[in-house]
Amino acid sequence: MVLDEIIVSRAIVEKFARKFSQGLDLDVAIVGAGPSGLVAAYYLAKSNVKVALFERKLSVGGGMWGGGMLFNEIVVQEEAKRVLDEFGVSTEKFAEGYYTADAVETVSTLCAAACRAGARIFNGISVEDLMVRQEVVIGLVINWTAVEMASLHVDPLAVRSKFVVDATGHPAEVIQVLQRKNRVTLKAPSGSFQGERSLWAEAAEHSTIENTGEIFPGLYVAGMAVNATMGGYRMGPVFGGMLLSGEKVATLLQNRLRPKPSPKN
Ligand code: 48F
Is the torsion defined by CA of 228, 232, 238, 240 positive or negative? Predict the structure, then answer.
């Protein structure tokens, strides 16, 4: 076989254009492919929800690759081990209720499972704004990260989605941009973005899961962005809360997208 570089180029351009075009109108658009976003994407795709993930970096996995301080092991507590089991990630018991997993195996396995379940992942794309109509978030405004990094004056494109999930981790970027550009009140006790507090793993893990949910009509929040928004604590390299938050947001959205028929009287 003689390789033709133009066929290679055309294959990439045409295939990507088709995939991207199909990703412009979604049930759920997830911003951020860290652990919470990847887990949410997996469960949503598995239940046939049309979901895509938009990730600023070339690599997925967010803050998981480096474990704690670049020691690439993560810790997951008893309650969340079943999520890693569902994905087939190998875990080892370290102490009663504490399990470790290889960070690289965990990220790559979560990512592969999300893709195989049918989630589309668009890397190298940054979400810079939202579409908001009558106090409801209805989609994303996106641009190439390379454009953002080079500070080029290039207009973005838009993605329509029934629901958006902010899974951007510590900066909670989607919620911050919503608040900065629109005079809105968030569904939070304070009504506004609070910023995260210092390290307290126990409290942080619980509040991440508890407060995962709809923060503004059409906009959900999952993972560390939950605590950043609500003024909760950070938790360090314990990842159970991220996995369970991703699972919870997927369940909440499945219920929104396919409401169960009300029982007949
Ligand atoms: O930070 P990240 O891993 O979020 P997470 O799922 O998990 C947090 C943990 O990694 C850790 C922790 C728990 O122990 O505290 O930090 O909540 O992943 C967030 C991803 O979102 C991307 C970012 O590059 C990262 O991969 N991201 C952030 N802002 C944008 C974005 C944006 N505006 N557009 C696209 N991607």
Answer: negative
Summarize pLDDT for 13-44 with one digit per residue, the tens: 999 999 999 999 999 999 999 999 999 999 99
Q: How many Å apart are CA 114 and CA 37, to the nearest integer?
A: 10
| 208 neighbors 227 (Cβ within 8 angstroms) | yes
Strand partners, 121: 53
- 34 CA to middle of ligand 1, Å? 5
Closest-lying ligand 1 atom to the alpha carbon of residue 234: 15
Confidence bin at 183 (pLDDT 50/70/90)? confident
Of 56, 87, 72, 90, residue with least CA distance to 169: 56
Q: Dihedrals φ, ψ of 264, to 5°?
A: -70, 145
Contacts of 101 (CB under 8 A, 6+ apart): 73, 74, 76, 84, 89, 90, 91, 92
Atom of ligand 1 at shortest range from CA of 36: 6
Distance of CA 232 to the CA centre of its chain: 18
Residues with CB under 6 A from ligand 1: 31-37, 54-57, 62-64, 126-127, 167-170, 173, 223-225, 234-239, 242
